[in-house]
Amino acid sequence: MKLIVGNWKMYPRKLGDAKAIVGKLKFPAKKLPRTKVVVCPPTLYILPLVALLGRSPILLGAQNTFTVDEGAYTGETSPAALVSSGATHAIVGHSERRALGEDDAVVAQKAIAAVRSGLTVVLCVGEAVRDPGGAYFTEVGRELRASLSGFPKNMTKRLVVAYEPIWAIGSSALRAATPEDFREMSIFIKRNLVDRFGKSAGFSVPILYGGSVDEKNAGGFLKEGGADGLLVGRASLDPERFSEIVRVAVNTR
């Protein structure tokens, strides 16, 4: 089973535009053998998009959540409220959230709260610099272990890890990441998960690639890279491009 997650970030500006994007995804995604698709729009759009999708196999997720289900926390969105709105997944620890000051301790608390509320967590980890000495392994390992501190061992079925090579994303990217880069890191991440949760549970956690994914490189990361799925950014806002990425996933053995 391949997992394709679309992260819309703070786009689009209007709910009508969000509905138009999802509406164009409905037909290509009616039958998705061996593939699960999750769209993560801005939080305000989740409830109306759930209603629009109806029985479509496309699932809705959140781009962030909070550490508790309710309380005097102005402006936060609880995982319980997300579940009540129809969300099934939540992205936690995205590099853009971490850049805003979110540390590993907060990420860990959010991950725990999310799975206990019934959400599947898409936990993001990744290094800012890929140095020739291999110190990036230490950085990713530390971030992964700290972000999973206290995570219940009996809830790994609701855990997904997305690897984001920050150095390969955006206009300031040093170079494009390769399927080989991902395969190397996914093996390392899997070893850490086995150390944390045991062999059976650790190997069962899907590892996604997320870093400037588009319809041109999706196949390489899924096939040569061996990714269990993809975390797609900007391309997920284009119905044709995102549908093509989904088709590539469906056709990948």
TrEMBL record:
Domain of life (superkingdom): Bacteria
GO biological process: gluconeogenesis; glyceraldehyde-3-phosphate biosynthetic process; glycerol catabolic process; glycolytic process
Location in or out of the cell: Cytoplasm
Catalytic activities: D-glyceraldehyde 3-phosphate = dihydroxyacetone phosphate
Pathway: Carbohydrate biosynthesis; gluconeogenesis; Carbohydrate degradation; glycolysis; D-glyceraldehyde 3-phosphate from glycerone phosphate: step 1/1
EC number assigned by the record: 5.3.1.1
Alphabetized InterPro entries for the sequence: Aldolase_TIM (IPR013785), TIM_sf (IPR035990), Triosephosphate_isomerase (IPR000652)
Pfam families hit by this protein: TIM
GO cellular component: cytosol
GO molecular function: triose-phosphate isomerase activity
Keywords: Cytoplasm, Gluconeogenesis, Glycolysis, Isomerase
Subunit structure: Homodimer.
PANTHER family: TRIOSEPHOSPHATE ISOMERASE (PTHR21139)
Family: Belongs to the triosephosphate isomerase family.
Name under which the protein is recorded: Triosephosphate isomerase
